[in-house]
Amino acid sequence: MKAFEVVAARDARHAVALLAEHTPTAKVKVIAGGTDLLADLKFASASHAPDVVVDISRAEDLRTIAVTGGGLSIGALVTHTEIMASPAIREMFPALVDAAHTIGAVQTRNLGTLGGNLVTAVPSVDSGPTLVALDAQVTVLGPGGERRMPLAEFFVGPRRTALKPDELLVEILIPTENLGKPACFLKFGLRKGQALALVNVAASFWVDAKTQTFRAPRVALGAVAPKVIHATSAEAYLEGRAIAPEAMAEAGRLAVGDAKPISDFRASAEYRKHLIAVLTRRALEGAYDVWQKKQSPAGRAR
Amino acid sequence: MVTVTVNVNGEPRTASVPPETTLLRLLREQFNLTGAKLGCDVGDCGACTVMVDGKSVNSCLMLAGQADGRDVLTIEGLATLERLHPLQEAFEQLGSLQCGFCGPGILMSAKALLDENPDPSEQDIRDALAGNLCRCTGYIKMIEAIQGVARADGARPAPKSA
Fold this sequence. Notes:
The structure holds two protein chains of two kinds.
Chain A: E1 5-8, H1 12-22, E2 28-31, H2 37-41, E3 52-55, E4 65-68, E5 71-75, H3 80-85, H4 87-92, H5 94-101, H6 106-111, H7 114-120, H8 128-133, E6 137-142, E7 145-150, H9 151-154, E8 155-157, E9 160-161, E10 168-175, E11 183-189, E12 197-208, E13 213-222, E14 229-230, H10 232-238, H11 245-258, H12 269-295, H13 297-301
Parallel strand pairs in A: 1-3, 2-3
Antiparallel strand pairs in A: 4-5, 5-10, 6-7, 6-10, 8-9, 11-12, 12-13, 13-14
Helix pairs in contact in A: 10-11, 11-12
Chain B: E1 2-8, E2 11-17, H1 23-30, E3 49-52, E4 55-58, E5 71-73, H2 86-94, H3 103-116, H4 122-128, H5 140-155
């Protein structure tokens, strides 16, 4: 690994001050859990390697999980293990727990952070689809203050985000209107452990209890486009439609048309298309299961 | 250079290292604790697994400076001069390791699991070992050894409540 200087940030504001200080004259990277950055730097060419690394791993203000006026706020430094253990997330969004569980292995989940996973922005990012399906916003802190945008727009392309060099991702926010919205995340990899997704899918929708129809349906696909995408034709098809297995299967077929999967050594585009249809249908079924269980928790126990 | 002080296996150790030094290299090259192994160096193989503040981590993916002031437990901290750790005894009895290269990492993952979950299911154990690659023994005898230790632990009389 090429030598670099490390400057440690006390908190988010200090980190942004350090970025402002160093980015004009040096190549700067931010380290949180290090699971992506250090693995990458060990193979980085000298031209790509940073001169300065801002260490935010002790910025305790980025480590909170809390329901605020804006919704469920998850600090960028919250680890995948902490997501899995959070009572609030387990209660409101078991899909986020499932997604965190598929990332890396115990050791990488103990180090790796939600913010880091999103900033790395690989197309197969496992924490992406569920958050996109829940209309999550991200808060970015820069020299001029905070700005907020949908996570779906924060992702720009493979390993590219809307983050400017002097900005820091500080918060992931699931808006109040989506708290407890039924959701399901499914990932298909070549193994159970430490696999990259061939396809990952999240589905989320409210159930209009009176009419038994889909309300605000969302389907998000990962690993089948340059970034995590909404399956917009599947979402449009489901809106207001009666909840039925056939509708879920048709949404799966439509989702295939929303994606642009590639062929690589892991799988062919054809196979990925097949997976999109199957996983989308199953994720919709899974989200409906979540909803049904919430309706009659006592009924399940009987 | 950065000066790093880490509480390693219950003893404070200090070294001055270049800032890009990983915790793994700090342990191996400065503290001569060569139990944690440098395998893939990118967090796939788990041979470098140690515990930091009670959690298992890939020490190849953590900067030494990020461990400053923290508690680090390595394989060297499991046994005493008199006696192996129960996990080590169980691995020895069942022949759970052949070449042994992955062993220190596997044992630290197993220790971290049992610290958090004294009564793991087989699936819990498999999940706990998913980040540790073994290419010669296979996992069955390791899982049996870990189950054996968990059961022996459970057989002990529960501590009396106050």
